[in-house]
Amino acid sequence: MSAAKATDSKYYTLEEFYALPEDTRAELIDGQIYYLAAPTEIHQVIVGEVYTEINMYIKRNHGKCRAFVAPYDVELLGNAVEPDIFVLCDMSKSNGKRCIGAPDWVIEVASSNASNDYRKKFNLYKNSGVREYWIIDPKTEYTNVYKFESDSNIIGFIRYQFADTITAGIYKDNSEPLEICVADLIEGFYNFQ
Fold first, then answer.
1. Where do the domains of the chain lie?
2. Cα separation, 162 vs 142, whole angstroms
3. Angle (CA) 57 62 68, round 5°
4. Please, which pLDDT band fits residue 193 given cuts at 50, 70 and 90?
5. Pairing with 132, which of 85, 117, 126, 139 sits 20 to 30 Å away (CA)?
6. What is the mean pLDDT of residues 63-68?
7. Which whole number is the average pLDDT over 142-169?
8. In what order do the strands lie in the sheet with 85-88?
9. What local confidence, expressed as pLDDT, does residue 92 receive?
């Protein structure tokens, strides 16, 4: 999603962030508010198709995890972000309004605020206990997959082309792996090379 930073230099707390009007689409990262603009068509197509694939996999395998799609806040280390997609396996972290604590898997579809996805959110997810982080970038037609340990070290990084099949790491012990090929999911919606 596209984001614009608040123009003031004030440091905002979570309490101040949650006091914003309910219909405000924004994130709080390192004390700064980033207002979210409406996403592009390709962004929404990718989010919808990837979310559907994950959700169907979880249901088919009677999984204990649940997939969420934006808008749904995730509170991490004094920040509040709105990942495009996330998978939560410890449902006690969800209070019905937001997820408090690290999801197991986060997926962002890069847009005009890609620098937040690649830097600020990357560090936030890495340091808060997210196990796996994907950045799907329609502009470059690559998906970056990061796998983290509990002590915030990167244990794996692979860059995939949209035509590649990616196996989700959080389900590696299942007999049926979750495999996603972005090109297959968006075929007919988007003309990529």
1. 40-186
2. 6
3. 55
4. very low
5. 139
6. 94
7. 88
8. 66-69, 85-88, 105-109, 132-137, 142-148, 154-161
9. 96
Beta bridge partners of 98: 73
- Starting at the edge strand found earlier in the chain, the sheet holding 26-29 runs 3-5, 32-36, 26-29, 79-81, 73-76, 98-100
3-class DSSP string for the chain: CCEEECCCCCCCCHHHHHCCCCCCCEEEECCEEEEECCCCHHHHHHHHHHHHHHHHHHHHCCCCCEEEECCCEEEECCEEECCCEEEECCHHHECCCEEECCCCEEEEECCCCHHHHHHHHHHHHHHHCCCEEEEEECCCCEEEEEEECCCCCEEEEEEEECCCCEECHHHCCCCCCCEECHHHHHCCCCCCC
**CATH code for the domain defined by 40-186:** 3.90.1570.10
CA distance 124 to 74: 11
Could you read off the pLDDT of 95-153 as tens digits, one per residue?
999 999 999 999 999 986 667 678 889 999 999 999 999 999 999 999 999 999 766 67
Mean pLDDT calculated for residue range 1-10: 63
Q: How far apart are CA 2 and CA 14, in angstroms?
A: 21
d(CA 159, CA 157): 7
Separation between Cα atoms, residue 162 and residue 100, nearest integer Å: 32
